[in-house]
């Protein structure tokens, strides 16, 4: 008993003699002193990824309200793990794009009386990128090969590729998938045929002994197709259970409201943007099937999508805009030499007025739109009232713009890039119709150097 008591006293003494270190807590960490200049602290950014089990995923799938029901298996579960854990960035990319195209997909699927879930197939095909190209030459949201695209009415040539057009390609994909469903009577098998072709699916059915479902012919399908449908089903689950996997999108991208307008002209999107003060990048996004930013003569009747905010203005002024699309600005040698590097002393400051567009400002100063954009670091044709622009006077104006005829009439010499509308804006109180009457013009077509009566 005495020995035991002595041992306890000795242990307490030894413990108390050990020097204590400073305690650390989470609260104290927040008030720690800032690192010195010599210290470099790592910046760790962690993303919380919720744990889940096979049973939890299975229960969620069973409770999903979808027309194309499916049963969970190890293959689908592995793809769910891939999209929610190993490659979350891909899922986030899809989330950021889906509002651009899902409303269109839903509308098209409903029109063709198809399950709305079919739209998720485009994610597996293209990642919702309308201009993506596969290694074998398939293009667009639904990855059509050229021959299949033409079979469904899409033009594929050096000027236009309708496979990149979301509306046309989605319509074609719906028709093709529905025909495959009629052929095989099963949506999973129809999607497999969309990937590897109906011939390979028929071969797999024969080799399986006449089985008809995807999982019954699974082992007889090409390797890529065996992963294709399970990926579709995994993405169908993931995008319907984003919160459970801590996916939160702060800035979704929505489709730009637009209308279709026919100009019945061969023209460049740059010229249309110049005349209407639109952003070229917006026109390119709305018309992805147009290559090189040009509508060719062979497709002059195609409808062009323009932002809805500008559609009323364009329709009200369609006649002069369409006529002016052919007025390409002339690039004269005298101005080419000074385009890249004008001296700072040669710049003048121009303040943008109401009604100004870059085309009219460029014409007024004898320069080009591209020059003004270059001098002012402009990425688009958008300008605001009151904005100050640097403009170097052009050296190509060898003829005075305004002169007086022997008859006493005031004449205007058409400058490169001019249109009747631009000339009317230079002369307050003068309308396009008055210009046409004064000069006996039947159309809005004018040419640089042409003299017009303006008063």
Structure description:
The protein is mainly alpha-helical and 455 residues long. 44% of the residues lie in helices and 7% in strands. Helix 5 (88-111) crosses helix 8, helix 8 crosses helix 9 (187-196) and helix 9 packs across helix 12. Residues 8-41, 329-340 and 395-399 have low confidence and may be disordered.
Largest sheet: 3 strands, antiparallel
Tell me the fraction of residues in β-strands, as a range.
Answer: 5-15%
SSE-based structural type: mainly alpha
User: Whole-Å distance between the termini?
Assistant: 127 Å
Helix fraction bin = 40-55%
**Globular, elongated, flat, extended or rod-shaped: what is the shape?**
elongated
Oligomer: single chain
The number of distinct helices, counting runs of at least 4 residues, comes to: 21
| Poorly predicted spans | 8-41, 329-340, 395-399
Order of helical and strand elements: HHHHHHHHHHHHEEHHEEHHHEHHEEEHHE
User: Mean of residue pLDDT?
Assistant: 82
Q: Care to count the β-strands? A: 9
* Gyration radius, rounded: 33 Å
**Major sheet strand order:** 7-8-9
Structure summarized in a few sentences:
The protein is mainly α. 44% of the residues lie in helices and 7% in strands.
Can you give keywords for this protein?
455 residues, mainly alpha, three-stranded antiparallel sheet, two-stranded antiparallel ribbon, 21 helices
């Amino acid at each position: 008993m005495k020995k035991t008591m002595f041992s306890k006293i000795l242990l307490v003494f030894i413990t108390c003699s050990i020097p204590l270190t400073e305690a650390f807590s989470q609260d104290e960490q927040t008030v720690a002193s800032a690192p010195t200049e010599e210290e470099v602290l790592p910046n760790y950014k962690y993303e919380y990824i919720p744990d889940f089990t096979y049973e939890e995923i299975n229960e969620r799938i069973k409770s999903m309200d979808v027309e194309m029901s499916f049963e969970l298996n190890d293959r689908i579960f592995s793809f769910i793990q891939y999209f929610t854990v190993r490659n979350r960035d891909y899922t986030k990319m899809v989330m950021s794009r889906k509002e651009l195209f899902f409303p269109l997909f839903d509308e098209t699927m409903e029109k063709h009386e198809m399950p709305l879930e079919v739209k998720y197939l485009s994610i597996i095909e293209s990642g919702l990128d309308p201009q993506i190209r596969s290694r074998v030459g398939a293009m667009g949201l639904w990855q059509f090969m050229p021959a299949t695209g033409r079979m469904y009415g899409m033009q594929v040539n050096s000027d236009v590729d309708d496979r990149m057009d979301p509306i046309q390609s989605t319509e074609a994909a719906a028709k093709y998938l529905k025909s495959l469903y009629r052929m095989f009577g099963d949506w999973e098998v129809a999607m497999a045929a969309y990937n590897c072709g109906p011939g390979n699916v028929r071969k797999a059915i024969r080799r399986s002994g006449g089985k008809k479902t995807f999982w019954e012919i699974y082992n007889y399908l090409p390797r890529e197709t065996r992963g294709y449908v399970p990926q579709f089903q995994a993405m169908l689950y993931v995008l319907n259970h984003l919160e459970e996997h801590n996916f939160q999108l702060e800035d979704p991208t929505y489709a730009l409201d637009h209308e279709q307008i026919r100009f019945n002209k061969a023209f460049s999107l740059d010229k249309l943007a110049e005349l209407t003060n639109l952003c070229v990048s917006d026109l390119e996004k709305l018309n992805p099937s147009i290559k090189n930013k040009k509508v060719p003569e062979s497709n002059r009747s195609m409808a062009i999508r323009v932002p809805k905010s500008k559609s009323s203005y364009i329709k009200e002024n369609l006649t002069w805009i369409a006529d002016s699309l052919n007025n390409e600005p002339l690039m004269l040698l005298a101005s080419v030499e000074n385009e890249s590097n004008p001296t700072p002393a040669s710049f003048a400051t121009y303040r943008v007025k109401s009604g100004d567009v870059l085309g009219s400002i460029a014409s007024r100063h004898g320069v080009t739109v591209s020059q003004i954009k270059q001098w002012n670091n402009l990425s688009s044709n958008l300008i605001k009232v009151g904005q100050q622009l640097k403009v170097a006077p052009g050296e190509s104006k060898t003829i005075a713009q305004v002169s007086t005829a022997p008859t006493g009439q005031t004449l205007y010499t058409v400058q490169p890039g001019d249109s009747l509308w631009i000339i009317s804006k230079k002369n307050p109180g003068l309308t396009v119709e008055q210009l046409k009457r004064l000069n006996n013009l039947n159309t809005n077509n004018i040419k640089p150097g042409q003299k017009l009566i303006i008063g």
